[in-house]
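thought: fold this chain, then report.
action: predict
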Amino acid sequence: MTDEDRQRTMDFILEHQAQFSTNLESLRESQARTDAAVAQLTTQVQLIARQQKHINEVIAVMADAQQHTDERFNALIDVVEKGRNGQT
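observation:
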C-alpha cells in the first residue's frame, strides 16, 4: 500500500467518522423531541383518564337518581290508580 493509498484510506475513515458523528447527533436531537412528545402525551392521557373516571362517577350518580325517580314515579302512579278505583 502506497502512502497515497493510506492517505485516501485515512481520509475515507475520517470522512465517515465525521458523518457518523453528525448522524448520531441528529439521532440524539430526534430522540429528545420524541421523549418530549411522549411526556406530553402521557400527561394528556393521564388527564383524560381522570376526566373519564369523573364522568363514570357522574353517570353512576345519575343512574342511581334515575332509579330513585322511577321508583317514586311508580309509587305515584299506584296512588293515582288506586284513587281512580275508589281505593284509599
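thought: worth noting. The mean pLDDT is 95.
final: C-alpha cells above.
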